[in-house]
Specification:
This protein has five helices and no strands. It is mainly α. It is extended.
Length: about 150
Amino acid sequence: MNKSDKLRLAEKFKTDKRLWLYAIAVIVLALLIALPRIVNPYLCSVVFLMFIYIAYAEAWNIMTGFTGYINFGFSVFAGIGGYASAILIIDHGIWWPVGWLLGGVFASIGALILGSFMLRLRGSYFAIGMLVILLASGVLATTKYLTP
């Protein structure tokens, strides 16, 4: 087996590996779509919470693991998205998948605005600043303006 055959075999394996990953992703997505019809609602809520915690863990890994910043603001952005989607769905009667997507858009805009200011801070100042924003958003969420 010469060098060109080895390269061709490596490219074929890479393509086959990618194809297998796509196939597994489609199967997992199909199982997640069928999950509410197969199992009881409690297990569905546990799986849903599991994926939320996976997303939080990955966000923590990206922020702390790669940049070294300690970020306490993940729940702020989740709260912005949750409040925005709840207000859009309940008060304005928007279809819930669109409300969820718009909640994500609002959370992204909030993260962009807060990040443009907070990412200028370094070290423990960043951690303290994000903690202050987290506590302030908790106080804001319990005011009469945002609660029904």
